[in-house]
C-alpha cells in the first residue's frame, strides 16, 4: 500500500453541486428526466406511518412524494404532499377521526389507481412525449415500471421536468404535468 498525500483546504471555498443547467428541452430523451431507482434510492415510507409524521419526513428530506410500502416492503402506492394536504386532513377530522389516527394508507394513491410508463417505452421517448401523454393529468408524479423484472424502476416528477425546462412559477409546487403541457404547448 502507498501513503497518499493530504492537501490543505485553506484556499478552498466552494462545494461542487450537480449541474442543473442541463440543456433539456421537449426533444430531449425522456431518460434525462427519469429518476432511476437503480441509481438513486427510492424515497419510501411505511403505509402505517401517521400522515403528520409523513409530512414532517417529506419536509425534512425536501421531497414531495414517497413510495408507500407495507411492513414487508411491498409496493402499495404513492403519497405526496398533495394527498397530505391540510384540506384532506380536515376532511378526515370532520368524520370524527383523530389527527393521529390518519395514516399514509388512508390518504395515499393505491397502486390499483396508478398508471405507469413502461421503462422500455421511455428509452425511445422524448420529454415532449411525456408532457403530451400526461398533459391532461393534474398529477405531479408518474411511476415507471420495469415490466420485464416486475418492479417499480423509478419515477418522473413534473417539478423535475419544469426545473430542467427552466420554467418559472413562483413556486414549483404548482407544476403538474397539466401546467407544464399548457406552458410548453399552448403559449
TrEMBL record:
Database matches in Gene3D superfamilies: CBS-domain
Domain (CBS): residue spans on this chain: 108-173
Keywords: CBS domain
InterPro entries xref list: CBS_dom, CBS_dom_sf
Annotated Pfam families: CBS
PROSITE patterns, per the entry: CBS
Protein name per its UniProtKB record: CBS domain-containing protein
